[in-house]
Write a structure and sequence with these properties.
Structural class: alpha+beta
Shape: globular
Number of helices: 3
CATH architecture: 3-Layer(aba) Sandwich
Order of helices and strands: HEEEHEHEE
Strand content: 25-35%
Largest sheet: 3 strands, antiparallel
Helix content: 25-40%
Number of strands: 6
Strand order of the largest sheet: 1-2-3
Distance between the termini: 42 Å
CATH topology: Aminopeptidase
CATH class: Alpha Beta
């Protein structure tokens, strides 16, 4: 099932409502193992890393392989993080997302180019 990591985070009725509202769930697999899952609607994305991969899943190759097909759809990705989500803010920043604006509840971020591209010499 796509979005293999989200059932542990969200109640079944919430997952079903999200699917009905147009959210798509995508996984990045390493062999048979789910490394991370994304919840995507248009350019908006929310990512979770499998607990056993936390701290080792962020290789440049994996990040690019997961994000490239999603970025290709709209040319950019966007996300939002609750203001108190300091770890999540650091995570999306490491992925290359840039903060674009904020409101009383959230910080908003955009990724406008695939991260970790090699610079032309």
């Amino acid at each position: 099932m796509a979005g293999a990591l989200f059932p542990a985070l969200l109640k079944p009725e919430v997952l079903e409502r999200m699917r009905l509202n147009g959210w798509e769930f995508v996984d990045y697999l390493e062999g048979d193992e789910c490394v991370c899952s994304g919840m995507v609607k248009g350019p908006e994305i929310h990512i979770t890393i499998a607990p056993e991969w936390r701290g080792r899943a962020l290789s440049r190759r994996r990040v690019r392989a997961f994000l490239a097909p999603l970025m290709a759809r709209h040319g950019y990705l966007a996300t939002r993080i609750r203001r108190e989500g300091v770890e999540a803010q650091a995570f999306v920043t490491r992925l290359g997302f840039k903060r674009t604006w904020e409101d009383p509840m959230f910080f908003y971020y955009e990724l406008t180019q695939l991260p970790f591209e090699r610079k032309a010499k």
